[in-house]
Design a protein that fits this description.
alpha+beta; 26% strand
Amino acid sequence: MFGPADETACRALWVELTERHRLIYESPSIGGSDPAADFDPLLADSRLAGIWLAEVDGEVVGMAGLLLDGSEAEVEPIVVTEEHRSRGVGARLLEELRREALARGVTHLTIRPVARNVDAIRAFHRAGFNILGHIDMFMDLRENQPTWKEGVEIHGFPFDF
């Protein structure tokens, strides 16, 4: 479990997650000029039941938070350092949060990866997140829109992501 001594390592993980989003969306502005500061709202969120850590040789290499809302919960965030991905670290974190959610009487556990993070979507599906509950749809109103990728279809409708 997360404690004050883990804050620096967890902020670094948060920054790594932000960097991943910047890379897959080809947008260096994601997370602003100080992405580590975006970790503060998570810590202040009244729904935060805790942050679980994954360690290898005493080093924090992953974290996953559990946000509770009545009988529902959300995994937010979940991040594993790049060098420890695809080694089961994230799966173990998800399993720990699943057990915690069950112990707390949660009936639905949600996770919301960004649409372009295909590796994460694949991993979450393998971990049992195979039901779609909500879909966030948006319209880009900027004049100089980035190039969106094509290739997702839901109920016969094409979407960019």
